Amino acid sequence: MFAWGIEISYSYVTRGKLRYIKTRRKSYFPQILIFLFLILLFISLFFYLERTRTTQLDKYFKVINQLILRSTQLGRDFNLMRKRVPELSQIEVKKHFLLLSERGEDIFRQGEKIKPPTTLRIAHAYLVISFKLRAQGLKKYQPALLDALTGKDLNLVRRQIDLALKNLSLSDLAYSYFLLETQKAIKNLKRKPPIVQSNFLIDENYEKETLFPYLKGLKGLREGKEIHGIAIVSLSTKPRKIGYSPEKKAYTLPRADILMATVEVINQGNVAEKKIKVVATLRTENQEEQKRKEIIPLLKPKEKKAVTFSNLLPSTSPGIVNRLTIKAEPVPQEKILTNNTKIFRFVME
Fold first, then answer.
1. DSSP readout, 279-323?
2. HSE (side-chain half, CA atoms, 13 Å) at 314
């Protein structure tokens, strides 16, 4: 039978004869088993710790990636809202930027509560700093913007906004340090966790931004007075008019079964108007009244938009006068309504 060990034999001579006393086998098998057990235990412990570490990293990055994505989306919303300021009332500006500020503060607070793995403590500190700078920048930006809208000194407002944008720009720098430290911490991992990219000031550097043109572009709102007013400035038809009858007080159009009418609507106020209803009504003596409605989703201050009604059915009977009325429904707080309507009388020949 095979066994791990050492066989020991000894002999002696007595009365001229060589005698063997005993053969004894010393076995190392138990020690070898213990040694192998310790090796397996060490390997198992190593893989357990490695798996635990990987699990901790996966959980950590899953949580922070969600926060980073929220912060990136917040930056997109902020950049979009800055462009939309001229379209909004002061109440809307305050509301939207206050919500942005609250979202930034919530992201910072949640990031601050996260306990990172030991190897990512430095990296996580940079991430929290980035979130904090974004929250502070948003908090400073909103009151400065309202100061601009209420007619405060533009030099003072520019400095306030410049400081807010500086915080937001520095938040991107802090985030780059977070990425750098994270790469150092995970460089030896075989399976590296995904890390989300993030920039707050999209395609824009606050140091290169000229704030005065932006602030002066808000001058229509700077006095704190909102002016609401829309008007129809032109009307054209297809087929086009070919004459005018003073007797019937009506234009003459070539005979056609379908009439297309286009009006241009302008926003004469300093506040963007939304969901403007434009209604066309065609009346004749020998046909039922026809009504068509179109909606302008958004009309910025001083902006013009064309509205076309393409399915009107005029009377083609000789001498019958068609009366087309196109009206832009008044917007809230509009005072002058005389220019909201165009009337076009015509006959088909």
1. EEEEE-SSS--EEEEEEEEEE-TT-EEEEEEEEE----STTPPEE
2. 32
Per domain, the residue ranges of the chain are 32-222, 230-348
pLDDT computed for residue 44 by the predictor: 56
Closest CA to 334 of 226, 221, 220, 218: 226
Query: How many angstroms separate the CA atoms of 119 and 275, rounded?
Result: 54
pTM of the model: 0.52
Structure-block tokens of residue 327: 């009206």
In 10 A of CB 13, how many CB atoms?
8
Rounded to 5 degrees, what are φ and ψ at 137?
A: -60, -45
CA 110 – CA 21 distance, rounded (Å): 82
Give the 3-state secondary structure of 169-234: HHHHHHHHHHHHHHHHHHCCCCCCCCCCCCCCCCCCCCCCCCHHHHHHCCHHHHCCCCCCCEEEEE
Q: Which residues does 188 contact at the CB level (< 8 Å), separation at least 6?
A: none
Pick out the chain residues at pLDDT < 70.
1-38, 40-54, 87, 148-154, 202-225
Count of Cβ atoms closer than 10 Å to residue 45 Cβ: 10
For residue 308, the model assigns a pLDDT of: 95
Convert the pLDDT of each residue in 3-37 to its tens digit.
455 555 545 545 555 454 455 555 555 666 666 66
Token pair in block for residue 278: 């434009």
Quote the CA–CA distance of 239 and 247 in Å, as a whole number.
22
In whole angstroms, give the CA distance from residue 237 to residue 251.
Answer: 11
Q: Which two tokens stand for residue 116?
A: 């990172």
Name the region of 212 (left: φ>0; alpha: ψ -120 to 50; beta: rest). Answer: alpha
Domain 230-348, architecture per CATH = Sandwich (2.60)
In angstroms, the CA 80 to CA 84 distance is 6
Choose among 199, 147, 148: nearest CA to 176: 199
